[in-house]
Amino acid sequence: MTSPPKSPVRLGAIGMDQRQLNALSLLFSSKCNNRYILVEEESAEICILDLDVFGGERLWEECRERHPDLPLILVSLKTRSISDSYTVFVQKPIPVKLLIMAIEKQRRLLLITTADEADLIDEETPAATEMKALERPDTPCEAPRAPPKVSRAASLMSVTEEKHFVGTAQDIDSNNPAQWEKIFYNPDHYLLGHLQQALNLAVKHNRNVAVEGPWPKIHLMAETHTVRVYSEERHLRPFCTIPDSTLEASLRLFDEVKSQASTFQEYPVYAFFWKLALWASRGRLPEGTNLTQPIYLRRWPNFTRLVVTPHAIAIAATWTEQPRSLVDTAAALGIPQRYVFAFYSATKAVQLAGETRRAVDTLLAPQSIEQSSRRGLLGRLLDRLRG
Amino acid sequence: MNDFKIIFSGPVGAGKTTAIGAISDIDPVTTDEQATDMTKVQKPGTTVAMDYGQITLDESEKIHLYGTPGQERFNFMWDILTQGGIGLVLLLNNTRPDPFRDMHFFLNAFQAFIASSKVVIGVTQMDLSRTPTIEDYHLQLENSGTKVPIFDVDARDKRDVSLLVEALLYSLDPGLGG
User: Fold this and answer.
1) pLDDT tens, residue by residue, B140-151
2) pLDDT digits over B41-64, tens only?
């Protein structure tokens, strides 16, 4: 019998009646040494959803809208194929061992996110051994897609974080306009757009602005150039990642209330907009961006106080050397376009980057990136710095 | 045995010793001596010789991290230290009376080395003094014709120092990663 980990995994159950909940609770306490506990959906790390309940498909869709990348376990009497890497399927009636295996698979996704190695199951524990034994080709449990091999440049960001900020979009053919619509988003349809309006208002009046809507309370503080969010980040993120042009924001000027009873997270304006732009972009570009116009970088971003997406430093170094188009940047660096698109979205949101307007910048094709004679050495040092 | 070095420089109290310690594989060798001049007021253990740290890449390759003496009267050592260097990490203390003067002084002093390599700038103590801002530093260099990475850095934080050095490496070769 293994001892339970420091913090049990919090599981939410969707579309289950009280009996099913009781059965799961009993299972977790009696067979799993309280490694897992049932909680409300809002505080769950992993959710189990019964598709066979009335409206099960709709519940699934709604759950995904609320939590686009929450690890999810779908159960149903009918087998199905799942392509979403955050979701696994287990056919009912569920063998206990398969359910535990599915939970542990989803739990590993969480561990990639949190990098909390202390919570990793010891590979030699009986539970781990048992799970390994259960891994078989004919398992009805759809295994999540293996995380992509983490490149040198991506090592500062976990796989899950990378999906949050950069997405997984494939490269497009820039000569094929039919593919363009996939890579554009309208910032005005996201919380980012409302925040940009609020910032303009705060600057114009040099006063604080409250951004009110269905999202958690947000205050732009004019004097300190900070943003206060009166909630945890995970409650804010859905409003930043899901487009909804019907959402209306109310912008209200206010003076600071001296005694703020509630707690808040405070961000520098610059870092907050950077993050919101990445969440909205997910590897796409603001509408109207010209794919072939060279991009300039006004100055280096203050990377130590920002979310650093994979290859961001390389892209910054490239653009500070010479303006270069988005498509050409990706090709010159040999990286997927989404990394360039995400970085451009973030730098554009904080007004660090834009399309060049000088004729000279489009006159000649950009030079190839000069390779240092010490590239091997520099690469090995980079690997060491990133552990 | 291939040995290369990165130079850390900057005025007294900028965090050179601490930054080297943040990324070094070995306990940094610090030849701190009790200062006898006015710098004693600013920092009790002011470096009058130099700091040394090391990153081991493999059995035959090491990166040496050298911290230059903070005081200008030791600048005769700087030319010697920079020979064969990969690049310069310039640390500036934002609480100093005139950090812009510090920046221009050190960029000028290492002009020849920077011309043959690259420089990155880390501004420390920004939690104690919020101005000048990072934007202000960039504006100071606007007419220099080059865009230098300038980051807000906590010299004790390995991530901050690592990012600064990474920016140096990518400045030397943007096609490095992948």
Assistant:
1) 998 777 899 999
2) 555 555 556 889 999 998 889 999
The helix (run of H) or strand (run of E) holding residue B66 is strand B61-67
Looking at residue B166, its amino acid is E
Residues in chain A closer than 8 A to B86 (CB atoms): 374, 378
In a domain, B107, yes or no: yes
- The complex scores an ipTM of 0.90
What pLDDT sits at residue B47? 52
Instruction: Average the pLDDT over each of A101-110, A276-285, B18-27, B52-61 and give the range with the smallest value.
Output: A101-110
Query: Which residues on chain B are in Cβ contact (under 8 Å) with A377?
Result: 2, 4, 57, 61
pLDDT computed for residue A334 by the predictor: 92
Q: By the 8 A CB rule, do A367 and A322 touch?
A: yes
Does the distance separating the beta carbons of A317 and B165 come in below 8 Å? no
A126 alpha-carbon distance from chain centroid: 33
> What are the DSSP calls for A147-163, one per residue?
PPPPPGGGTTS-HHHHH
Q: Where are the domains of chain A?
A: 9-134, 152-183+278-385, 187-276
Give the tokens for residue A166: 């950069």
Query: In chain B, how many domains are there?
Result: 1
Using the beta-carbon criterion (under 8 Å), do A334 and B175 form an inter-chain contact?
yes
Domain that holds residue B168: 2-172
Report CB contact under 8 Å: B173, A152: no
Q: What is the pLDDT of residues A4-32, one digit of tens each?
A: 445 678 888 888 887 778 778 878 877 78
Phi then psi dihedrals of residue A22, to 5 deg = -60, -40
Q: Tell whether B137 is covered by a domain.
A: yes
Tokens of A275: 């993050």
Pairing of strands A9-14, A46-50: parallel
* CATH number of residue B161's parent domain: 3.40.50.300
Q: Is residue B56 part of a domain?
A: yes
Nearest to B9 by CA among B37, B58, B39, B50: B50
Q: Which two tokens stand for residue A56?
A: 């099960």
Number of neighbouring beta carbons within 10 Å of residue B95:
14
Please name the helix (run of DSSP H) or strand (run of DSSP E) that holds residue A346, with its range, or none. Answer: helix A337-349
Question: Within a domain: residue B178?
Answer: no
Chain A hits for B172, CB-CB cut-off 8 Å, are: 372, 374, 378
Structurally, at CATH architecture level, domain A9-134 sits in: 3-Layer(aba) Sandwich (3.40)
